[in-house]
Amino acid sequence: MMQLLINGLIAGSLAALIAGGLALVYGVLGVFNMALGQMALITGYCTWWFHQVLHLPLGISVICGLIVGGLVSWFVFEIFVNPFYKRHRFLPLVTTIALSMILDGLILLIFEEQPHAIIPGIKDTFQVMGAWVSSMQILLVLLTVLLMMIMGYVLHSTSFGRKIRAVVQHDQAAMSLGIKAPLLHRYIFIMSGVLAGLGGIYLGIDQSLTPVFAFPITIKAYAAIIAGGKGNIWGAILCAYLIAFLEQFAVGIHWFGLFYIPAGYQQAVALLFIIFFLLFRPNGLFAGRARTA
Amino acid sequence: MKRLLAPLFALGILLSACSPTADNGTGPIKIGFIGPLTGDANTYGSDTYNGAQMKVDEINEAGGINGRLIEFIVEDARCTGTDAASAAQKLINIDKVVAINGGQCSGETLAVAPIAESAKVPIISGGSTSPDVTTAGDFVFRNIPSDALAAGATASYLQENGLTAIALITENTDFAIGFRNSLIENMGEDSVVFNELVEPGTKDFRTLLTRLQDAEFDAFIANGQSVAVEAAMAMQFRELGLDHPIFSNNAVVSASLSEIAGEAVEGLKVVMPPSEGADANKFDTFAAEFTALHGPAASSMTYAANSYDIMGLLAKAIAEVGTDGIAIRDYLYGLDGYDGTVGRFSFDQNGDVVGIALELQEVQDGVFVKVSDIAVE
């Protein structure tokens, strides 16, 4: 049981980083970024490259990877989102789908097809209350939670956060009060790219990076933000964890002492559960009255 | 890249209306290739492609087949049936190839088989080991032994070593399911204490493996088809403190498996077609030439050698009976024996290879090495 909770935390933290990044952009800009999974992978791959090819220490590699991830996000924002999203907020849906295909190709071209692991091999594991974990996994989970707490603090207790929430409520009105809404949009987009990039690094450390993995992680993040109440970043993050726990429990519990759900249905069962919830709360499990950051 | 090719593809369909409908006896002889050049299974795609291209270059440099050069047309099928089917449609209907080397993945070959059958174009695979390929059609051949044999040999090895209770996790692909089913058939249902199927590309096995902690079993069969999935399975198995021996199938034989999974896959065992043919010198010469051109094999030299032999065999067949698909098929069935780099082989009435043995390989210090020969009955 303890092991199931830990497994859920490990998988959920990864999903939460991606879903958080996605929800941040959707909550503030109202834009769906379909290329976020690829952006996350690029950050992961760059970190792998710095660590395994250039042999930089892990910490520096992660920072360099995140800087590249941030730059890529900035570039993506200027070319694929900024010129379009003011005209219609669904336009970037199309441009980012195109971008995701381009990035898929670029990842294949630059990093080639074989899988890469940022830290290869077995991580030393030990038992905590009957559950096997590695110190790297504990670190990754704690860092994710810490990051979420910092983000919460920034959004709710700083003047930067207040400005963001003002822009979310009414960007024209916020601009008339001297808040530079377009600049904030740019910051938010880069922040979401970095957040997702951390997800990519997480994936590269805990499992391995493969070029085909971008789409599945994006889809799962979408499920989380829709279930969480569109645009509600905390709802999205909580739902990312919820889906991860449901997936683990689906296959890990001996239901009624009679049967296990076959592993092939692991994802389907979790998502069906979410759909069932949405029947009763169509706006999402944690929907507020309006879009909030 | 493929999306860029789509308009060209449409243009090709238009142009094909003007092109001759069959080989007209002049110009280059077209032979197709279908394999996973990208995607999780790319390592055997690149090895089989490089092996085939080597033979094509050799033949063309020597003046071609009866004075006609080979035009080698290559399509990527990403180890999926849908991509393989569209690749086969293109090669057969637009390029009008005489024969196809491929697919390499079993899923590819099974998807290509009905298309090749209706167009009467023979296909030979050097990598598809699914038992289903045996009955895939009259124009389908392979020079790699069926998994029914490899799984049977794995089962006998397990039983001989007293590993009678097995736990299986299988990736949901034609190949891996074929291996699983043959293994269960040979071991008996009662030997299987844990049997789960996961979606292709799954990398989180922790909860499934958690259930194994309470199970009584002797050996873990990590039955994945791609290196990334296999590595995740083996690593998470070991990270949960499980120390049972791990067995797998020949699809995961790749240099990058150890690069990712490290000591998690040390001692992992697979039953493989021989890494050296009956004539070791011949195989070594090939391996040295291949390595000089492309570096070490990304998966296993066996796949490259099989693919090399397929091109040699096709060239020999075309030289003797011409470019008619039915004539080539009949030639292959009637083949007395082809002296390839992997040994002397022919085909049985199902197009399955005859004459190729198997061997047990194990990961030692990050490399797959031969442990023992396995007789095939």
What would the keywords be for this entry?
heterodimer, A: 293 residues, mainly alpha, ABC transporter involved in vitamin B12 uptake, BtuC, two-stranded antiparallel ribbon, 72% helix, B: 377 residues, alpha/beta, Rossmann fold, 2 domains, five-stranded parallel β-sheet, four-stranded parallel β-sheet
Helix tally of chain A?
A: 11
The CATH class assignment of the largest domain in chain B is: Alpha Beta
Distance between the termini of chain B: 46 Å
CATH architecture of chain A: Orthogonal Bundle
- Domain module count of chain A: 1
Oligomer: heterodimer
Largest interface, counted with CB-CB under 8 A?
A: A-B, 38 and 42 residues
Q: What is the mean pLDDT of chain A?
A: 87
Q: What integer value in Å does the Rg of chain B equal?
A: 21 Å
What's the rounded overall pLDDT mean of chain B? 87
Q: N-to-C terminal Cα separation of chain A, in Å?
A: 34 Å
CATH top level of chain A is Mainly Alpha
Named at the architecture level, the CATH assignment of the largest domain in chain B is 3-Layer(aba) Sandwich
Order of helices and strands of chain A: HHHHEEHHHHHHH
Q: How many domains would you count in the coordinates of chain B?
A: 2
Number of strands of chain B: 15
The helix fraction of chain B, in percent, is: 40-55%
> What structural class do helix, strand and pairing data of chain A support?
mainly alpha
Written description of the protein model:
The complex is a heterodimer of chains A (293) and B (377). Chain A is mostly helical and 293 residues long. Chain A has a single domain (2-280), classed as ABC transporter involved in vitamin B12 uptake, BtuC, CATH 1.10.3470. Chain A has eleven helices and two strands. Chain A has helices at 2-29, 36-53, 58-85, 91-111, 135-157, 159-169, 171-176, 181-206, 214-227, 233-252, 266-280; strands at residues 125-128, 131-134. Chain A has a two-stranded antiparallel sheet with strand order 1-2. The two termini of chain A are 34 Å apart. The model of chain A has no long low-confidence stretch (mean pLDDT 87). With 377 residues, chain B is an alpha/beta fold. Chain B has two domains: 2-145 and 278-357, Rossmann fold (3-Layer(aba) Sandwich), CATH 3.40.50; 148-272, Response regulator (Rossmann fold, 3-Layer(aba) Sandwich). In chain B, 44% of the residues lie in helices and 19% in strands. Chain B contains twelve helices and 15 strands. In chain B, strands 2-1-3-4-5 form a five-stranded parallel β-sheet, with helices on both faces. In chain B, strands 7-6-8-9 form a four-stranded parallel β-sheet, with helices on both faces. Chain B has a three-stranded antiparallel β-sheet with strand order 10-14-15. The longest helix of chain B is centred in the C-terminal third of the chain and has 21 residues, at 301-321. Chain B is elongated. The N and C termini of chain B lie far apart (46 Å). Residues 14-21 of chain B have low confidence and may be disordered. At the A-B interface, helix 1, helix 4 and helix 10 of A face strand 7, helix 7, helix 8 and helix 9 of B.
